[in-house]
Write a structure and sequence with these properties.
With 76 residues, the chain is of the alpha+beta class. The chain has one domain (2-71): Glutaredoxin (3-Layer(aba) Sandwich). The protein is built from 3 helices and 4 strands, in the order βαβαββα. The chain has helices at 11-23, 37-42, 66-74; strands spanning 2-6, 30-34, 50-53, 56-60. The chain has a 4-stranded mixed beta sheet. The radius of gyration is 11 Å and the shape is globular. It starts with a strand and ends with a helix.
Length: 76
């Protein structure tokens, strides 16, 4: 499993990336951070920051806390 944070490089996007790393610290889940707007557009994201698991967007336009990210992962 891989989490991908999609954003423009703003403070909120960086915070979502940090929260995703915290949420997955005790797992083997890889966390990637994409700021290339061309690649972000390929996901079809209209609001940032966004979080994808695999190729599926699970959150867009919200800064999720580590606990919220863990909950999303556990519900898969």
């Amino acid at each position: 499993m891989k989490l991908t944070v999609l954003g423009s490089g703003c403070k909120t996007c960086h915070k979502l990336y940090e929260n995703a790393k915290k949420a997955t610290a005790d797992t083997n889940i890889e966390v990637e951070y994409i700021t290339d707007l061309q690649k972000v557009m390929e996901y079809g994201v209209m609001s940032m920051p966004a979080l994808a698991i695999g190729d599926n967007i699970v959150s867009s336009g919200h800064l999720l806390k580590p606990a919220e990210i863990k909950k999303i992962i556990n519900n898969l």
